[in-house]
Specification:
alpha+beta, Glucose Permease (Domain IIA), 3-stranded antiparallel sheet, elongated
């Protein structure tokens, strides 16, 4: 019976333990002394349990770029990588994924390789769906180099109510696509920067699943045929398929 229950419960990410314990204690106190707000406190506790859920994912086998997060693809553009990663004026195809408060917020490595650089940038807390959030908001940037020396950038971006970005990586660390590496607490966005010769396999408006959705196929013939996408523009399905 106990194993059956465990199999049907979604695991909780350890980053949420502290908040959940505090809210649980507050809920207990409210039920003991403050009946009028006890049910509101219980709702908050249930929301925290839901928000910090960390379901298992099955990552496709192969040489793929995998979605680093659950959420909606809100933009696919051609732009430069964050300046702090030291990639100069080289352009990349940026795939932006917006995470609402009801999405799983655990982040996963998009591509197998080695972490070459990490950089935390304090900033604003604008709406993460805005294009300028990539530049102005608080963010954690990661540079990953694959075995064939291709560079991929990965950026966790805080949103309107996000106030903490967790990144459990070290420079020089070898990473595997689909493996957990961090979380953004309470609303956010994740950007993946692909070399411009790699054609994305997702479309704006599509819902991505972290650790499972294929962002790009690194062995596909599309790698050589990829075209430059419009800078600072949300690309339509028609434009991407043409």
């Amino acid at each position: 019976m106990l194993n059956t229950i465990r199999n049907h419960l979604t695991p909780i990410n350890e980053s949420g333990y502290g908040i959940i314990i505090i809210v649980a204690l507050a809920t207990l106190i409210c039920f003991m002394f403050f009946d009028k707000i006890a049910w509101l406190s219980l709702f908050t506790l249930l929301f925290c349990l839901y928000f910090f859920r960390d379901p298992e994912r099955v990552t496709p086998e192969g040489n793929y770029v995998i979605s680093p997060a659950d959420g909606k693809v809100v933009a696919i553009t051609t732009t430069k990588a964050p300046a702090e990663l030291g990639l100069g004026d080289k352009e990349f195809t940026r795939v932006s994924i917006f995470l609402s408060v009801v999405d799983v917020h655990v982040n996963r490595i998009p591509v197998t390789g080695t972490v070459k650089k990490l950089y935390y940038h304090p900033g604003k807390f604008l709406n993460a769906e805005l294009d300028k959030a990539s530049k102005d908001n608080e963010r954690q940037s990661v540079l990953i180099e694959t075995e064939d020396k291709k560079h991929f950038a990965l950026v966790q971006i805080a949103g309107l109510i996000a106030r903490r970005i967790v990144c459990d990586l070290d420079e020089g660390q070898k990473v595997q696509a689909g493996v957990r590496y961090g979380i953004i607490k309470f609303g956010s966005r994740v950007d993946v920067y692909l070399p411009t010769d790699i054609r994305p396999k997702v479309l704006v408006g599509q819902t991505a699943i972290g650790g499972e959705t294929i962002i790009a196929d690194l062995t596909s013939s599309d790698v050589k045929e990829a075209k430059k996408l419009p800078a600072s523009k949300k690309i339509s399905t028609k434009e991407l398929e043409s």
